[in-house]
């Protein structure tokens, strides 16, 4: 799992516990695989040591033969398929101890939805990307049905997405260009399963992508079926808490000594790997720009592995759609153009850095980004859009639990009435209903125990009627009243019956 997926998931767990620790516990399932980096292990160890209320359940690890896969997307598919039996076992084990109210799956954990559905567990998707990512995958089945050809065979055909600039088919993510690629079918299945989920959480906030979010929630991306509830609960980023024991990095000390807003920061994610040639072009462009910079750089693939770098080794993304939205619609970014060989030249890097740091265009862009940052901080205030969306999501879990318990309570009441007569349970259900959302499991056991005890007092087993009493008769209500008075007398004498029921 990439850090860009893992960190927001952990922050979501912290968020749930921060506001609903008295109602929910959080367990995160970790599927270890050959694509993991050492950073993942370090991060998980730190969270385990500093956040004891989040539990990690590690699925059994296994190795994969990289020669069997054409690209990384196919590897993701195989990795998830191999983990399904382990996932089922984990959910069954957890369900024996806890009542699982929601199963939140990462976008790439798509096949887990079928496992959870078989077990009757409500499933939600969590997208670490924004509304643009969600819009693409909600709309993929529609554009899939518009042609029988692979998108790579119709590269100049423009595809239309409601509320977004149209893009040529050649600009779609690599895994969906070829219909014969196993990854293509997997991503189509993700798109269909998104519609089956109980809801979709997106790591974005409304004011950042409000027009597109409204179009999605209005149902324009799923014209032939209901759109699941969409919860914009971002930004979810690593919190600055628990800094004790962390050594200040030399880079941070250097940053603190630089003038405000004078440093160019480059970071392409834990899976952001470039060829040696591209790394060289970026380095030259940075140097020639004359700007201070901090670059989180990974060694090129060809220097660390016995394989050659290719575009297929990249993690699937929505580069072209994101670029069109950020540059053309939101005006929050500048685009860098590639050469025919796919490289971004040093001259292009230098030019765009100078534009960002020295020109009026860059100043306006940075000012707009600063304002968006302030709005991003406000969304988690008490009346902020993300806080409201999160509260709506969490309360839906509470309501679902309450409704489930109501059904269980009604079953118990019906059983009680079948023994004691219609309406016998009414004096007790009022208080039980009030306590049900937090204490129903205990109440249910108490009611069931009292039901069993009453049956034994009346000479009945398993709720069957005593001899000589026909259906509809309620003389046993008087016996129940006598029993309760007897228990009250025992209580006053300090001889409380151990089986006495207290709602």
How would you describe this protein?
- It is a single chain.
- This protein is α/β, with parallel strands linked by helices and 503 residues long.
- The chain is built from 16 helices and 10 strands.
- Strands 3-4-7-8 form a 4-stranded parallel β-sheet. A two-stranded parallel ribbon has the order 1-2.
- Helix 5 crosses helix 6 and helix 12 packs across helix 13.
- The longest helix has 36 residues.
- Keywords: Transferase.
- InterPro entries: POX_dom, UDP-glycosyltransf_plant, UDP_glucos_trans.
- One of its GO terms (molecular function) is UDP-glucosyltransferase activity.
Q: Which helices and strands, and how do they pair?
A:
Layout: H1 3-20, E1 26-31, H2 38-50, E2 54-59, H3 72-97, E3 103-106, H4 112-118, E4 123-127, H5 131-145, E5 158-159, E6 167-168, H6 182-196, E7 199-202, H7 206-217, E8 230-232, H8 250-256, E9 263-267, H9 276-289, E10 292-296, H10 301-304, H11 319-329, H12 346-358, H13 360-378, H14 385-420, H15 426-457, H16 476-492
Parallel strand pairs: 1-2, 3-4, 4-7, 7-8, 9-10
Antiparallel strand pairs: 5-6
Helix pairs in contact: 5-6, 9-12, 12-13, 14-15
């Amino acid at each position: 799992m990439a850090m860009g997926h893992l960190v927001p998931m952990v922050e979501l767990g912290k968020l749930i516990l921060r506001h609903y620790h008295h109602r929910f516990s959080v367990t995160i399932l970790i599927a270890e695989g050959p694509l993991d980096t050492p950073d993942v292990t370090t991060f998980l160890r730190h969270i385990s040591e500093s956040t004891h209320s989040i539990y990690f359940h590690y699925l059994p690890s296994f190795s994969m033969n990289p020669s069997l896969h054409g690209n990384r997307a196919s590897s993701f598919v195989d990795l998830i398929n191999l983990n399904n039996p382990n996932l089922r076992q984990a959910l069954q084990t957890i369900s024996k101890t806890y009542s699982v109210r929601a199963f939140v799956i990462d976008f790439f954990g798509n096949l887990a939805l079928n496992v959870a559905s078989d077990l009757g567990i409500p499933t939600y998707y969590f997208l670490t990307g924004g509304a643009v990512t969600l819009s693409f995958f909600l709309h993929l089945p529609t554009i899939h049905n518009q042609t029988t050809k692979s998108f790579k065979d119709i590269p100049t055909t423009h595809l239309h997405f409601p509320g977004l600039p149209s893009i040529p088919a050649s600009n779609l993510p690599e895994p969906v260009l070829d219909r014969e690629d196993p990854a293509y079918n997997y991503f189509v299945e993700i798109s269909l399963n998104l519609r089956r989920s109980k809801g979709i959480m997106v790591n974005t906030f409304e004011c950042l992508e409000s027009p597109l979010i409204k179009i999605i929630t209005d149902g324009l991306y799923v014209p032939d079926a209901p759109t699941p509830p969409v919860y914009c609960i971002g930004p979810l980023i690593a919190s600055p808490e628990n800094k004790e024991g962390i050594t200040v990095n030399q880079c941070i000390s250097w940053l603190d000594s630089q003038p405000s807003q004078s440093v160019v920061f480059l970071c392409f994610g834990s899976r952001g790997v470039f060829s040696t040639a591209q790394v060289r072009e970026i380095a030259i462009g940075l140097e020639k720009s004359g700007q201070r910079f901090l670059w989180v750089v990974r060694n090129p693939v060809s220097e660390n592995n016995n394989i050659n770098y290719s575009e297929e080794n990249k993690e699937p993304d929505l580069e072209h759609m994101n670029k069109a939205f950020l540059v053309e619609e939101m005006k929050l970014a500048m685009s860098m153009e590639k050469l025919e060989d796919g490289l971004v030249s040093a001259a292009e890097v230098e030019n765009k850095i100078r534009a960002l740091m020295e020109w009026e265009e860059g100043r306006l862009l940075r000012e707009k980004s600063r304002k968006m940052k302030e709005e991003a901080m406000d969304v988690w205030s008490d009346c902020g859009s993300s806080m409201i969306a999160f509260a709506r999501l969490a309360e839906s879990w509470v309501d679902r639990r309450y409704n489930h318990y109501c059904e269980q309570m009604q079953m118990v009441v019906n059983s009680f009435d079948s023994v004691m007569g219609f309406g016998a349970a009414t004096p007790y259900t009022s208080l039980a209903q009030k306590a049900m959302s937090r204490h129903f499991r205990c109440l249910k056991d108490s009611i069931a125990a009292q039901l069993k005890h009453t049956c034994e007092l009346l000479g009945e087993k398993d709720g069957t009627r005593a001899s000589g009493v026909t259906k509809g008769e309620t003389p046993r209500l008087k016996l129940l009243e006598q029993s309760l008075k007897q228990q009250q007398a025992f209580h006053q004498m300090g001889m409380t019956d151990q089986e006495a029921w207290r709602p």
